[in-house]
Amino acid sequence: MTNHLRALIAGFAASMALACSLAQAQQPAFPNKPLRIVVPYAAGGLSDIQVRAIAEPLGKLLGQPVVVDNKPGASGAIGTQAVATAAPDGHTLVFANNGFVMTPHLNRNAGYDALRDFTPVSRVSSTPMVLLVNNDVPASTMTEFIDYIRYQRAPVEYGSVGTASMAHEHGAAGPGGPA
Fold it and tell me: Taking a C-beta distance cutoff of 8 angstroms, is the pair 12, 68 a contact?
């Protein structure tokens, strides 16, 4: 490699480094205003409790307040859509759970696409799902419970927190029962 080519490469590298440092210098530090975490469910539920547990420590770490904004409705679609249409500056986040992905498949008017409109930032928690039955139900394992449901003449009732929740999506069903 000739000295002229080395000098040209070194000059290009220096100009790129200068351009990158100037571009970084022009951008304000992040975050430069309060963060807003939208919980697309009612206050007092598990998602709300989890995000409130991290909001204050996160605000201290980032040097900006973290505001928790509950926007329930439409199986989480109302709050999630608000984040999908917010300014894409990283200051508005959604605290999502499994319903985030399922809702657009169950509601054509959800107003967002989970893959197109969002970028994952961090996993905050993992919540186990527990199935409980009345002591009078003759089942103590999942296999026994499935057999119990399968051979019932009447639908087996169950409770869930609503559409797009794990309990709704995987709800127990007997003949003519919930699906």
Answer: no
DSSP assignment of the chain equals --HHHHHHHHHHHHHHHHHHHHHHHHSPPS--S-EEEEESS-TTSHHHHHHHHHHHHHHHHHTS-EEEEE---GGGHHHHHHHHTS-SSSSEEE---THHHHHHHH-TT----TTTS-----------------TTSS-SSHHHHHHHHHT-SSPPP---S-TTSHHHHT----TT---
CA dist., res. 156 & res. 138, Å (int): 13
The count of C-alpha atoms lying within 13 angstroms of the C-alpha of 144, restricted to the half-sphere facing its C-beta, is 8
Please compute, for residue 108, the number of CA atoms within 13 A of its CA located in the half-sphere on the CB side: 0
pTM confidence score = 0.66
pLDDT beyond 80 at 61: yes
Residue 5 has pLDDT above 90, yes or no: no
Structure tokens at 125: 């928690």
Phi, psi dihedrals of residue 173, rounded to the nearest 5°: -150, 135
User: Which pLDDT does position 8 carry in this prediction?
Assistant: 41
Q: What is the pLDDT of residue 1?
A: 60
